[in-house]
Design goal:
It is built from 9 helices and 14 strands. The protein has about 325 residues and is an alpha+beta fold. The chain binds coenzyme A.
Length: about 325
């Protein structure tokens, strides 16, 4: 009896952690597999420039080496020679397991490889899925396969994440920072008390995102993102926010949802981007979405969907780093 093609495909594959020198192959699979379905939607191909993605992959591989897994197929040339045909990457940040990437070469899709990779990079039994463990990811709203696959294991689409691009042509559309709220650059605070600043940022993250992720803040600083702490008149830490000359705004964590729009106004005024700004805004941060559109930013197609198995963050007060890293 011949095995059905899916079993044959799956049966021929091996799974193992990626090697740092193979990350370039993964960016190629990312580009090929996305272009494959977006062409069917008459969308332009992704640009070839994958520098930022390569740096993200290096970060994911460095922080969670056992959760960055490739599927390989013997390529038939020499014994032991193999070809990477798919990969997935996830990170564990305290109780939050976040699936950052899952991509399968088009020619072997719909054969169970994506589901197998999900198992390979899944949360350690007992770790994330204890009492308060959470699983989450971000998907393309135009891609039913990934949404169905993750929802089939309980990670269900919940909130749109909007990609807004542009310049504050009408900066007054952003409300001013309330009097008594003072932005202080991270580098000034870090010089005075590095550990104190790190503890303050962790506390703001735990309050808004539900987990602390100092290792990702270290990556943001390596990426040249500049941070500000927003202090109240009693010197308490109310929020933080980042922006870069490269144009990325975020993450932002605030103890008050009404401060997101004024903070976006401050960040988009404090930095002059080389090109345009880009910011990821959850639909739940509605006042910030309205102000950013009124300031002149444009909405990019298609919204991303934030998915989870149980609630963990207050996305009316937190703006993620990107769909690949919250
Ligand atoms: C998304 C992706 C990783 C999934 O991997 P895959 O190997 O094709 O998926 P699998 O065959 O393992 O599983 C897909 C499952 O979804 C189900 N499915 C697919 N489309 C569906 C739909 N429209 N409604 C309901 N279920 C659907 C399939 O039946 C299958 O379920 P099964 O295992 O119970 O049969 C892969 O298709 C891919 O790389 N796509 C392009 C890039 C991409 O979108 N990546 C995800 C970014 S968020």
């Amino acid at each position: 009896m011949t095995a059905d093609p899916d079993t044959a495909v799956r049966g021929a594959l091996s799974y193992r952690p990626v090697r740092p020198e193979e990350l370039g192959i993964c960016t190629e699979i990312w580009r090929i597999s996305i272009n494959d379905y977006t062409r069917r939607l008459n969308q332009p191909d992704l640009e070839a420039e994958t520098g930022p993605l390569m740096r993200l992959y290096s970060h994911l591989q460095a922080t969670d080496p056992e959760r960055f897994v490739v599927a390989t197929h013997p390529d038939g040339s020499e014994p032991g020679e193999e070809r990477i045909v798919a990969f997935a990457a996830a990170v564990q940040r305290e109780r939050l397991w976040f699936l950052s990437m899952c991509f399968v070469r088009p020619e072997i899709q719909a054969s169970g490889v994506g589901r197998a990779l999900l198992d390979e990079v899944g949360p350690d039994p007992g770790a994330a899925n204890g009492e308060d463990g959470v699983r989450a990811t971000a998907t393309d709203s135009a891609q039913p396969v990934s949404n169905a696959l993750y929802a089939s294991v309980g990670i269900v689409p919940r909130v749109p994440l909007l990609n807004l691009i542009g310049l504050p042509l009408r900066p007054d559309a952003f409300p001013a920072l309330p009097s008594g709220l003072t932005p202080v650059p991270f580098d000034v605070l870090a010089r005075a008390d590095h550990d104190g600043l790190a503890a303050t940022v962790d506390a703001l993250d735990r309050d808004a995102l539900g987990v602390a992720h100092p290792i990702d803040h270290a990556f943001l600083r390596k990426e040249g993102r500049r941070g500000w702490l927003y202090r109240g008149s009693d010197d308490s830490a109310i929020a933080y926010g980042y922006a870069t000359e490269a144009g990325r705004i975020g993450p932002v964590a605030s103890s008050d949802p009404a401060l997101l729009a004024p903070i976006l106004g401050h960040l988009s005024g404090a930095i002059t981007p080389r090109g345009a700004f880009a910011v990821w805004l959850p639909g739940t941060a509605d006042q910030a979405v309205v102000a950013t559109l009124r300031a002149g930013f444009r909405l990019e197609p298609f919204p991303i969907l934030l998915c989870w198995d149980r609630p963990f963050a207050d996305l009316s007060r937190y703006l993620p780093i990107s769909p690949g890293l919250l």
